[in-house]
Amino acid sequence: MIMESYHWWSQKQKDIAREAKKFADANLPMGEEVMLTKEFPSVPLKEVGERGWFGAAIPEDYGGIGIGVTGCCIVAEELSRVCSALTCSYSVTMFGGVEQLLKFGNEEQKKRWLPEIAKGQIIGGICITEPYAGSDAAGIETTARHEKGAYMLNGKKRFTTNAGIADIYCLYAKTSDKPEDKAKYRHLSAFIVEKGTPGFSVERINELGGWIGLPNGYLDFDEAGVPEENRLGNEGDGWEILVDGLNFERNLFAAGMLGPMREAIRYAVSHAERRVQFGKRTIDYQVNQFKIADMISKLQTARLLTYHAAHLMDMKRDPVLEATIAKLYTSEAYGELMPEAIQVMGGDGWTRFYPVEGFARDSKGNEIGAGTSEVMRMVLFRWGTKAMAEDLKMPPRQVHKKLGFPISTMDPSMTTQVSETSVLELLARNYRVNPGLYMNHDDMKRWMSTTNEELSKLLESLEKEGLARLHRDRRGGITLARATYKGLKKAKPLEYYQWFPDWVKKETLS
Ligand SMILES: Cc1cc2nc3c(=O)[nH]c(=O)nc-3n(C[C@H](O)[C@H](O)[C@H](O)COP(=O)(O)OP(=O)(O)OC[C@H]3O[C@@H](n4cnc5c(N)ncnc54)[C@H](O)[C@@H]3O)c2cc1C
Hints:
Blueprint: H1 11-37, H2 42-50, H3 68-82, H4 84-104, H5 107-118, E1 124-127, E2 143-147, E3 150-161, E4 168-174, H6 179-183, E5 188-194, E6 200-205, E7 216-227, E8 231-232, H7 238-274, E9 276-277, E10 280-281, H8 286-314, H9 320-345, H10 356-366, H11 373-387, E11 397-399, E12 406-408, H12 420-433, H13 441-445, H14 452-464, E13 468-472, E14 478-483, H15 485-491, H16 494-497
Parallel strand pairs: 1-4
Antiparallel strand pairs: 2-3, 3-7, 4-5, 5-8, 6-7, 9-10, 11-12, 13-14
Helix pairs in contact: 1-3, 3-4, 3-7, 3-8, 4-5, 4-7, 7-8, 7-9, 8-9, 9-10, 9-11, 12-15
Flavin-adenine dinucleotide (FAD) binds at residues 92, 126-129, 134-135, 159-161, 208, 211, 216, 365, 368-369, 371-372, 374-375, 378.
């Protein structure tokens, strides 16, 4: 299947896309073998290294090929057509070293590790998650004690992809217990832990529900000494480094789901074109065509989101929203697509004689690894509402003079008279146009030239008199206000609030 090279890709990126596709095509049978033998695909991974593709995001100065995050995604997409063990091992090496070293490593650290990573001679791992700290990554318990030019690590990590096969692990540990450091997220530091460090052992390898052949496990650190030179950034920079790497991780993770989506569509279509039921090919049933149409739509949308976020990263932007959406959308689209592909193939789709059921088993891991879908939504709510803050401002509303309807206005008539009476009148007017809603300070200041302090004072007086009801934040600051029924009565006569549609017969009301 030829997938589109996007028009903004460089010639070098387009060339790699073509080469990576050829490589993946040739290795598809090996990918299916992995699903059956559960053996880690070390031979093709070595070849990926020899081709220099581990150096996709590494600049040429450090031995890479410098085709950016987009280049990494191109490689990950094609490798993911082969098997998840291959693509995950590749991607985790990228975000378990490359991104952090490039952004936070000093010159010596970059020169020491990046050229070897670029050639595939060093496999990376990332150690954030612990037995008792998952989504709440700031709750990491593993400690790093500074002692005689080294940091002594104590604790456990789990769900570490590439456990045992990695040569370096980018690990986050606690370097401070001070509440003030924790409050400012300055309690963590980042380290590169090398394989063979005394006191560091692999504790367990997980038997995962999918991602067959990929070593993922628990690591134990018992007075494991890491030299000071292996610390990334300064002590206390750990959280910043961790969070900074997340866009890259989520983006690359999304790219690694595109391949199986392409393959599943290929199998669904190929199967339905060759299967005859009730005298017709099953692809001729519109119900199957619609399923395939939806699969194509999901794949193309996921692909666009992924490469758009990658492009923004290559433009040195910080696309928190775009990378988070790419990860969330792609993992959920993948999860929806696989059962549909199986359904189009009927019973055959659910046998292990085709790889689609294996992709379906992989799908759940995609909604958990690199942050769960719930965490993606938490990020999107927080960042999305912040990014759209200007667009999300509630428009001032007033009763239209001719129509008598409450509608928004871009030209609120400001009053300079600021008093208890005018504030109460404002709250009463709000009851007319937004019945049931409180007003915040900004809402009120769109009608009244005043300050937050002055407003708060007046609102507190109104509250004391029982004319206003206030809502406060945890520190006691006023966040919202409305008139009480007593306040509404004091502000205006009942007729002011009354409104009836034309079709209501007035005589029925009394
Ligand atoms: C296959 C695989 C590979 C992985 N590879 C790595 C790796 O290489 N390195 C690494 O460090 N980690 C890795 N992880 C760990 C992964 O990042 C965590 O599994 C993930 O962050 C969730 O943590 P948890 O499993 O402890 O779930 P928990 O945090 O215990 O969450 C359980 C459930 O509660 C929900 N939840 C938690 N908190 C909230 C909240 N505040 N609001 C709403 N819902 C909430 C979660 O969304 C989830 O549904 C991997 C995981 C998997 C499955």
